[in-house]
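Appendix B. Raw example, untouched.
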Amino acid sequence: MSEIVDVAVIGGGPGGYVAAIRCAQLGLNTVCIDAWKNSKGRASLGGTCLNVGCIPSKALLESSEQFFQIKHKASAHGIQVDGATVDVPAMISRKDKIVTTFTAGITSLFKKNKVKSIHGTGKLLKRSKTDEAWHIEVKGNDDAQTVQARHVIVATGSVPRQLPMVEIDNERILDNAGALSLSEAPERLGVIGAGVIGLEMGSVWRRLGSEVTILEAMPEFLMAADEQIAKEAKKIFSKEPGLAIHTGIEIKSIKASKKSVIVNYQDADGGTQKLEVDKLIVAVGRTPNTSDLGTDENDLNLDERGFIEVDEYCRTNLTNVYAVGDVVRGPMLAHKASEEGIAVAEMIIASEKGNNQETEAVSFNTIPWVIYTSPEIAWVGKNEQELKKAGIAYKAGQFPFIANGRARAMNAPAGFVKVLADAESDRILGIHMIGPHVSELISEAVTAMEFFASSEDIARIVHAHPSLSEVIHEAALAVNNRAVHI
């Protein structure tokens, strides 16, 4: 491209494509560079999230939960279903159709908003002091071109963290992409890593009949969550659907054959153990994707973990170069990436108009976390162990779903909601949930915290009856020992 565009976005995931669309909506001439290919070798926007992450995993979680409910829970409603079976290839096909629909939708949004899409890998070229714009080399399948842009947004996302002792082949040893594309439920499935990916994929295949064993290196289960929530989750998951979860383990070796995978590990007590499975999912986290981005050539600052260093407004140390999403500090969450992309777009248009006033930064304290297991887990703000460590005096209120009419009618009584509030001001510091549809309920908590609400504010709001949201209401009442229905 010979013209100089206003903005070039490198990466077409939730951070990149949202940033590109918002830039275009604001009147900026915008190009989005993305290298993702689908299983058929075709360009596919949406990054990890839409292609092999958030969207396909939720499709499989929903399908497997439907099967589990029919086979094991329908009888509680007086519904008898004999001989229920699952067609895994049909389930995978449904998931693939959903992915195709959404990735094609981004292409349509680009056309609607006049965002130019270029397929290939983008690399920042060395910039001289006389260059009026950044030069970005874009390598496609068989060719290369150069894009010039006044502003650059890096949104290259993250890649699965690798274990040095094993190679992912997505036949016997799987990453998140391979775990989403199995043609049948393996009899024995091993999962290394009890994070979001490990728990969600383990849940999918356990519901479909696999015997699932999860090995986690951390000494406790779900250490990022509130301790009480984590303990409740482990108790529930171990019972139903029946995940075998082992924490505090150290992997010693992994050996794959044509028939199985053998994992040798040391357990929390120092004992030597062996796990033999038919398939093994490796889900030990993700690392920022800065490979071949031109970081060294341009002295783009990276931190000790490989993340691009940015300030609270996502500005890097390079002039007019921003970075958002998984490639920078903060939680690796699609919605966090999107909000950062929007914030950067609005900062760029402000600077283009000569207004150098900084826009509002994304607040990490009110970003919701969700794990789509059954029951679901969600939280926002500080948990109890964080408040104790910081020496912050707080009050806690809690209410169980088993005492909620809607939850009992749904035959989903497991879990509870906990509200944490400042001991003096009553301002909400965090809200934590495990239970049915808490991925939807958490938005009330986020809204309350964004508007600096107190537990009393939620307690005074009228909640519909019967509804799951009443559990939040009662938990807020419980902060000051005013819960009614327990």
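End of appendix B.
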